């Protein structure tokens, strides 16, 4: 007897990958609170390499993190062609963001960043290989 294999549709795969990516982002930010000096910097309004936590910086970072969160739902809700291109572009964009943030980071962050980059590259690959269907005309 062989176990039955479930073939998840591309949209479901993408939503699951975005959700996994978000969990890594959240845990990375949470664990970062334990790095010596982080809370002191936060109490002085500093956001690490981003500098002073101005309303503009906070809004920009909020938007940057809202997009992958929204992609969990949008992967299921958007039309396939729009979802595919959004996942290709955003998957590559968020891979690049993580790659840029690696130098000088803590070891735990490097581990999570490597996982996040693997996830966002997988998002891109799943979107590129989106199955096609034959339409009868």
Global structural class: mainly alpha
Helices and strands, in N-to-C order? HHHHH
Query: How many discrete domains?
Result: 1
The poorly predicted ranges are none
- The number of strands is 0
Amount of helix: over 70%
The biggest sheet, with number of strands, parallel, antiparallel or mixed sense and barrel status, is: none
Q: How many helices in DSSP terms?
A: 5
How many angstroms separate the termini?
Answer: 41 Å
Q: How much is the radius of gyration in Å?
A: 18 Å
Question: Topology, please?
Answer:
Elements lengths: L9 H23 L5 H6 L11 H23 L2 H22 L5 H22 L9
Helix pairs in contact: 1-3, 1-5, 3-4, 4-5
Protein name: DUF4345 domain-containing protein
Keywords: Membrane, Transmembrane, Transmembrane helix
InterPro entries: DUF6326 (IPR046289)
């Amino acid at each position: 007897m062989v176990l039955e294999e479930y073939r998840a549709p591309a949209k479901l795969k993408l939503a699951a990958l975005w959700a996994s990516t978000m969990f890594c982002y959240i845990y990375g930010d949470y664990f970062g609170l334990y790095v010596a000096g982080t809370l002191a910097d936060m109490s002085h309004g500093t956001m690490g390499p981003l500098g002073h936590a101005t309303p503009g910086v906070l809004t920009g970072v909020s938007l940057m993190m809202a997009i992958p969160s929204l992609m969990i739902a949008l992967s299921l809700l958007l039309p396939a062609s729009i979802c595919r291109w959004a996942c290709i572009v955003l998957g590559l964009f968020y891979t690049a963001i993580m790659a840029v943030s690696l130098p000088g980071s803590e070891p735990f962050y490097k581990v999570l960043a490597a996982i996040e980059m693997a996830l966002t590259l997988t998002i891109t690959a799943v979107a590129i290989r989106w199955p096609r269907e034959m339409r009868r005309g």
